[in-house]
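B., you asked whether I could sanity-check this one before it goes into the benchmark set. Here's the sequence:
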Amino acid sequence: MFCKNCGSNISDDAVFCPNCGTQVGEGQSQPQAAPVAENKPNNNTAKPQTSNAVGLVGFILSMVSVLFWIIGLIASSGLLFIVSLMLGIGAIVCSAIGMNTASKQNAPFRGLSISGLVVGIVVVAISIILFIIGLAALSVMF
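And here's what the prediction gave me:
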């Protein structure tokens, strides 16, 4: 038989549902104290959502760092690459904090935090590689 409250499969001779504790057997002559709709949220209580602005900021920083990186590539400006590197590091930090907040507190923007982290890591890695190549080119020139 199935529990009328939670739908769990229970043995035919059970008096109480082992999953939700609702009385299902022979002693069920008295009506239940609470309706079915009020019992279900007690079993699957969701954590309240909190703000995850840091995760959103991490994603935005990663996109701005990509923008600065592209502009630095077009303008051949080392300063813009450095700005892009700093923004990428900030994006990594904020996105990591946002992912942690989203995991612990059921906060939104977990996907944006993950993508901000990935994009930030890629921008930082490419900026470091280009910086090393630039230093190598300078050492060859002088």
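One thing to flag: The mean pLDDT is 79. Otherwise nothing jumped out at me.
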